[in-house]
Amino acid sequence: MLSQLGIDTIRTLVMDSVERAKSGHPGTAMALAPAMYAYWQFTMYYNPADPFWPGRDRFILSGGHASILLYATIFLAGVKDIEDGKVVDRPALTLEDLKNFRRFEARTPGHPEYGLTAGVEMTTGPLGQGCSSAVGMAMAERWLATRYGRPGFDLFGYHITAFCGDGDVMEGVASEAASFAGHLKLGNLTWVYDSNRISIEGSTDVTFTEDVAARFAAYGWQVLEVEDGNDVPAICAAFKQGREETDRPTLIILNTIIGYGAPGKAGTASAHGEPLGMEALIGAKKAYGWPHDAPHFTVPDGVREHFEALSGKRGAEAQARWEEQFAAYCVQYPQEGRELKHIFAGTLPEGWEHNFPHYPTDAKGIASRQSSGEVLNVMATHVPWLMGGAADLAPSTRTLIKGEFSLQAPSNQGEGSGHYGGRNVHFGVREHAMAAICNGLALSGLRPFCAGFVIFSDYMKPAMRLAALMHLPVIYVLTHDSIGVGEDGPTHQPIEQFAQFRSMPGLTLLRPADANEVVESWRVAMGHRSGPVALALTRQNLPTLDRSRYASAAGVARGGYVLADCEGTPEILLLASGSEVSLVVEVYERLSAEGVKARVVSMPSFDLFDAQEKAYRDAVLPPAVRLRVGVEMASSFGWDRYIGLDGVVIAMNRFGESGAAAELMEKFGFTVEAVYTQARRLLSQQTA
User: Fold this and answer.
1) pTM recorded for the entire structure
2) Active-site annotation holder among 19, 245, 374, 431
3) Residue 19 parent element (H or E)
4) pLDDT tens digits, one per residue of 465-494
């Protein structure tokens, strides 16, 4: 009796919240209420009194449009709130919060937002992202268990469950992630596929008629089916079977009726993305046997206590056992215990900045992708939980951690060639899933990086955007950053990508000019905890600048800095990022020899520079100096705020061509002579 009452309470809170908001998606939440109840009450190990407990099971609502389902459950389960990273003695959500669903500044926004509402494990909404990031969470659990597991200590072993729908399963990113999860044999992962066969445009028959079960079986998943989405015992049995399968991820196909119980709405597209309307709402409550005179947002006596007696008690007991084990573990394995505390807190170990390389002056220099790989390997010795890989491009992106295993299911390769504790991840040609998986790794406390060519970041952008929304410290190592890639031609030559990165709130782009700027860029990236960082690196060699003559590369931390200067106020400013900095340095030397007062400003990061105080920015770019030349082998979009009306930007405002890099730079004006000519033209206009 209490079980059915709990399910119907979730459903009525869902309907009342959406109706009051006059906005929302009630149908999926109504259909999934029994599965949500079965999971939280009888399956999941989660302590509502401590939403950050590291040993908890993870739940992801990939279909974030059904957010009210999660909010109602968080409320009924009595999840405690989080403030400044610590649990506080107040509920994460109250009944009043449900009444404010989708309202401005509410803690119950239209889609779940990580960091805003305790109990929400990740920001979801763009379909396919949640279930794909759940693969990263499952990889993290396997990595932690393998890396830190010791005889007699069962600190890990938690399970990851994602609820997804037809839209999630249609999305390409989910297909990429599911393929990878099957390859890795992630038996700690379950996706619950809400098969209600309805999309916004109507029946999924108009677009989606494949055999989903056969597809996932081909991926290497265990596929289970529950015929009736209201059958709680059958749902619980499927969850149990999923947890018992240790060598394959599990897909539970759950057959539901969208808008269950609502007359005229159940099983129709109109139940998906709009309030039911009062007539259908009253009819649904009647179908559930809900008291006809009960006011909206009624929570019957005993329902919340029932949640506490089942899920709350089980979670609290599990955490108490875990805490006892962890305390003993830290005594017996102090170094590993310290590392785990850093992982749980999201901090870095002492001395993580030690032994960074310093590169001597070298006219020939080194490609920034190469120096980045060298710095990465130094960094990896200091931060054992720094891990990642490339989308089948590690040899090109220089992102292999030397001396470390590959992360593989142990049975995938010969004995000793790979295991779940490996730090090198071979993502395959799956850029979108790679970025989403890294979000799951970061949400689990690890420090992930992923790599590819800058141009292929277009396949990664949706997951990168979510990383920025969630303030996750993911590092993107993106190489082949300009027309300098040469013969591969315009399909591989990035033009508009930097402008896209710079326009994304919360994402920091760094484009280092030489090997020592690469060192400082990695220092910034690792120390940056409030969002993702993208490193844009070259294929071609870059001269290593003479830092005894020019300024220290430590200026990278401020985004832009005076690299080379003159006595007094400069007549002209030469600005550039990345490989183009050494070019403008040569122009500077030529102008200086002719008596021109010039200044070179290296601009590795617009984002960091714009965050500096105005006094610093004005000191680097004096407002009175209006003659400015900006140089970047990418779109000029965004440079205008530094160059002004009297300056000029030498940039790429068209797609490139196939040819040798030197030929392309000559054609598009990225030569010392071309930049010098532009600078001289500005100076002559001033004197005229």
Assistant:
1) 0.97
2) 431
3) helix 2-21
4) 999 999 999 999 999 999 999 999 999 999
